[in-house]
Amino acid sequence: xxxxxxxxxxxxxxxxxxxxxxxxxxxxxxxxxxxxxxxxxxxxxxxxxxxxxxxxxxxxxxxxxxxxxxxxxxxxxxxxxxxxxxxxxxxxxxxxxxxxxxxxxxxxxxxxxxxxxxxxxxxxxxxxxxxxxxxxxxxxxxxx
Length: 144
Known about the structure:
Shape: elongated
Structural class: mainly alpha
Oligomer: single chain
């Protein structure tokens, strides 16, 4: 039986195909750096796979392209949720949270407001943030 890994490039050797088959059976993600990009082999449950195929047919696209787009969309949203969570736990600064989320500090403030997370900044925290921004911009940090 070919299984879901049958579409792997023929350059993969037998051990990689076997690892992929085992990983997919176990629900494990297998990563391998190939040529210019990274390939991650994942197994989708039947409901998700049906949706991906339906959307691909509707958009006259390839199911792998649709799956990558949906994955990117999910990761983008998860980055924002994760950044808000660790900001709320005071593990990162506002600037760091925005960087993790891949958005501006202003956008991060809006996300925090939407989630009911207060910007509880002390004057010293604000000064520290400003000093870090000055350093990144190559400006004189000694100015207050």
